[in-house]
Request: fold
Amino acid sequence: MTSNKMPLVSIITPSYNSEDFISQTINSIINQTYTNWELLITDDCSTDETVAVITKYIFLDKRIKLYKLKNNLGSATARNNSISFSKGLFIAFCDSDDFWDKDKLEIHVKFHQEKKVSFSFTNMRIVNEKGVIILKRQSIVKSKVNYKSLLKNNYVPTSTVLINKSLLSEYKFPNYKTKQDYVFWLNILKNESIEAYLLDDCLTSYRKHKNQITNNKFKLIPLHFNILRRTQNLSLFKSFLYT
Reply:
């Protein structure tokens, strides 16, 4: 990819007690074949060695920047903080327990530009705590997602997203304890002129581990219902319909 086709990509990573996984996350970004990026990490008052791990990388690569919140405010605030400092034409997300294939950005940026879209995402695989693949996800989305289809399910994993920064000037991650990314995508796609396009390649590894807040599938059904009722103001009937 030539330099004039390599716009700056700002990668947004929130961190909180991520010492076990964040090295793999950062290494996967440093090793990208696409080199014009900045990694903006906002730490949400970690109590382990996360900040120490990140600090070592800052000395190795000037493209990595660390911001530290004074209070524990959640991943939504951490993401919004990093976005506020971003300089890229595009925004990508990679959570501190996930990691990318080395050509993720190169393939994704090319797709995003050639399709002339403002919001796109890739397929992903699910790995365990050790990074071993436990499921290669087969997307049930054919090519794109709109607001109505996203009401049924969150088809857009955060660590797979590439989005135009200009689009985010109108939106912020809502400060909810869980699923704030899902609400964020819903709010964006309420604009009928915007759709999220799928690049159907597995380029991201999503890590499933015991510390995740929404790790119990039986808790996800009422959570989904409440999101539709409280954040999207759907009727009881429609909320049941889409749950």
About this structure: The mean pLDDT is 90. The radius of gyration is 17 Å.
